[in-house]
Design goal:
This protein is of the alpha+beta class and 301 residues long. It is built from 8 helices and 12 strands. Helix 3 runs antiparallel to helix 4 and helix 6 packs parallel to helix 7.
Length: 301
């Protein structure tokens, strides 16, 4: 077989799959998985093109076009605020069977969060926090993976636990300065790993987008079990929220899975904001968990 047919045969399958996935919704299990795999399909596609085209000059425009199409999916850097930060928000999936809770708690507290959103929050975590650290709390512990809590160093004007299409969601109003209140929404969406759970997950992200409008600045944080390649996540952000980590240049940061011998592949843990200016951000190690925690510094406009 000549070089040209080999090139076309090797390149076409992943290209067709990428094009199909880019145009398809993510409301079914198979499509949700394909959307999550898009960055890696793109990488395989580009490597195949590069290898089989031999990087010949005539085919470099094709490589450039493919690379540009792929990077169009990557979250760009927004306007980073130069104002002094007002609020440090951190979110961590604790893993409800965490074998190193003390190390993880010490790591989180060393990051000095003003607001800490915790998912997979079990009764074992309730009495671990020092009384003089993050004293304002709303906790909904559970013996399964959908316990949740919001801990704050700033006073809470109010806090409620609501049902988000079958999972608990915490909504708290944090007083960040005299006369200034920020609404904090803590959420842990279902993982789209079965047909039924994928349907729940899709409805949860859609419902979350409908509940983030209000008179105060908003922070939505937690484990959304969605990455930027999922249309449901992009629709959530397009509804008026800003991906704070992407805005400060960490759009490529990944948080899951966190294992010693396996690289993190996806960012499932997010801090989304409206009416606040991202200043800085990053991730932590996440001892004993299967997720890396993330943090962002935010400024009032």
């Amino acid at each position: 077989m000549s070089t040209a047919p080999t090139y076309v045969v090797a390149w076409s399958p992943t290209s067709i799959l990428l094009a199909f996935t880019a145009l398809a919704p993510d409301a079914s299990l198979g499509l949700a998985v394909l959307h999550a795999a898009m960055p890696w399909l793109l990488l395989v596609n580009l490597l195949a093109v590069g290898a089989l085209a031999g990087l010949r000059r005539a085919r470099l425009p094709l490589l450039a076009a493919l690379a540009a199409a792929g990077w169009a999916w990557w979250p760009g850097v927004g306007a980073v605020s130069t104002s002094p930060p007002t609020l440090r928000v951190m979110t961590a999936n604790l893993l409800f069977v965490n074998a190193a809770p003390e190390r993880l708690m010490d790591e989180l507290l060393a990051g000095s969060p003003d607001v800490l959103i915790l998912t997979e929050y079990t009764p074992d975590w309730e009495d671990r926090w020092p009384d003089d650290v993050l004293p304002y709390r709303v906790e909904w512990p559970a013996t399964h993976s959908f316990g949740i809590a919001v801990l704050s160093a700033r006073p809470l004007r109010d806090a409620v636990v609501e049902d988000l299409e079958g999972v608990p969601m915490v909504r708290a109003w944090v007083e960040v300065a005299p006369g200034e209140v920020v609404e904090v929404v803590g959420v842990h969406a279902e993982p789209p790993r079965t047909v039924e759970l994928t349907a729940h997950w899709h409805r949860q992200l859609r419902a979350l987008g409908q509940r983030t409008g209000g008179e105060h600045p908003v922070v939505v944080a937690g484990d959304l079990n969605a990455s930027w390649t999922h249309p449901s996540f992009r629709a959530l952000v397009a509804g008026g929220l800003v991906d704070a980590l992407a805005a400060v240049g960490h759009g490529t940061l990944t948080t899951w899975p966190r294992y010693a011998r396996v690289p993190s592949l996806l960012r499932l843990d997010h801090v989304l904001v409206r009416g606040l200016e991202p200043v800085a951000g990053g991730r932590l190690e996440g001892h004993g968990s299967d997720h890396h925690p993330v943090w962002v510094d935010l400024a009032l406009p």
